[in-house]
Each structure stands twice: as structure tokens, then as C-alpha cells.
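Input record (one chain):
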Amino acid sequence: MNTTSRNTALLKAEADRLGFLSCGISRSGFLEEEAPRLENYLKNNMHGEMSYMENHFDKRLDPTKLVEGSKSVISLLLNYFPKEQQREDSYKISKYAYGTDYHFVIKDKLKQLLQFIQDEIGEVEGRAFVDSAPVLDKAWAAKSGLGWIGKNTNLLSKKTGSFFFIAELVVDLELEYDNPVTDHCGSCTACIDACPTQAIVEPYKVDGSKCISYFTIELKDQLPQGMKGKFDDWMFGCDVCQDVCPWNRFSKPHREPLFDPHPELLSMSKKDWEEITEETFRKVFKKSAVKRTKYSGLKRNINFLKEE
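The corresponding structure, as predicted from the sequence alone:
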């Protein structure tokens, strides 16, 4: 086994030990196919008020501008599919936000993996990215063979569906590179048919500014009256296009204790949510991603649903 193969095998074994679902590797460089897509997305205002998406256009498409001299993008998936879900008569929260904010959980694991690479392989420069930097996570994961981009624009895997986080390490280390997998959406249109706000405007194209997740998390203004009755009881995020995807019948519960929800979260009814106090909000969502919307934002979303 040559050094490159050995290093690749070592780091993939460590990623597995750290609890990642899978690990794939691509050569770092310019994402040619993604450039026109991203340009088109921004030009047509499909990012709504998410103005941060207009920043760092070049860096989004080329990780060598984020990590000088980088040779590899190591893409990693971490499962968040829960063992138990909210009760039926409840306003809904996206499953990814049930437990501790994933940014902290994954960043910690990535730091451990980078440290392992530096300890075992030698002087390697690199940076860890979790959804908060200008990196096109899904494009890199697909390039690394971890799945294909589905019609709902989520990364889908035949083995595990799509209820996972995507993160990466960009390093200046030459490794063995994986190949993309083929698309297995076929003629299925379950996600397109089920989207409550018709945000999937055509297969493989989502208008972010029409997505329930955008309205309930990103939009800071009043919710548009034209959307009344279309939120399907989602008060933070939305999982509809994932819930209906046939590949998600293969989702298995995660094994990360930090992703377990606060016990109260699963037992709260619509009435409980409508009466939620700031104190309860702080207790239930102490380290959760739901804190992004703040108490006032969640109340706004609940009131909007209540008036339907």
C-alpha cells in the first residue's frame, strides 16, 4: 500500500470511529459545473433576503481560495435522524434542530479529525467547515461519491436517505479520490408533488425564497399573508420533501447523544407551543439551532400558524 492509500485509509477509519456516517474525498479546485448554476440562482433572486449568499462568489466555487495550496476536500456526513418524533398534534420543528446545535457537535469532531491527521500523517494545513462558510457542501459531497443531488436539491444516498449533516475538511494533503455516484431519483416526483409552497419549481431546482425553512428561519420581516394556510404546521424549518422521499425509508436513528431532544420538546402540544414563555423557550432550546429564530421569531411563526 503506497503512502497516499495508507493515509486515505487511516483518515477514513478515524472518521468512522468519530461517528461519521460516511467519508468521501475529492480533488480541491474550481467547481466548473456549479458556477453557472450559482450565478443563475442569485440572478433570479432565489436566495430571497439571504444576502450573505451573494458574498465570496469566487471562494464558494474554489476551496483553494479558502485554504491556499489545498489539494483535497474531505466530505463527511453525520446522521441526525431521531429515534422519536414530536407528537401528532404539535407545531413542527425540523428534525435536524431537535438536539444540540449541529455546528458545535460537528466542529468538535472535525477538529479531532484534523488533529488526528496532523498527529498521524505529519504537517498538514487545513480548515474545517460546517455550513457557516462559503463552501458548496452538497456539490462537494456529490463529487466525493457520498450521494447524488436529488430533485429536491438535497444530497440523497441509497443506503441512508438524506437526514444527515454535511461538513468538510479542506487540506493541503494529496489523497485518493472517490468518484461520483449515479442519480437514482428516476421518474419519482414525490418531493415536487408534496411541497406545500411549490418551492421546487422544477426537478433539481428550488426557489429558496419560497421554502418554508426560509420563511420560518431566515426571513426577519412579517410573514407574507399569501402564504397563510400553506405552512403545514411547520414553525421552524420543514422536512416535507425529505419525509416523502422513498430513499428515507432506509433512515436509521442516529447514535449521537447530543442530538437527543430536550424531553419537553417531544411532549408539547399545539396549545403548549401557543402558551410558550421565554423561560421555557430558553430551557427547551438551550443549545439548539432553534435559538437562531429567537423567542420572538418562534412566537411570530406560531401566531401565523394559529391564525390559519
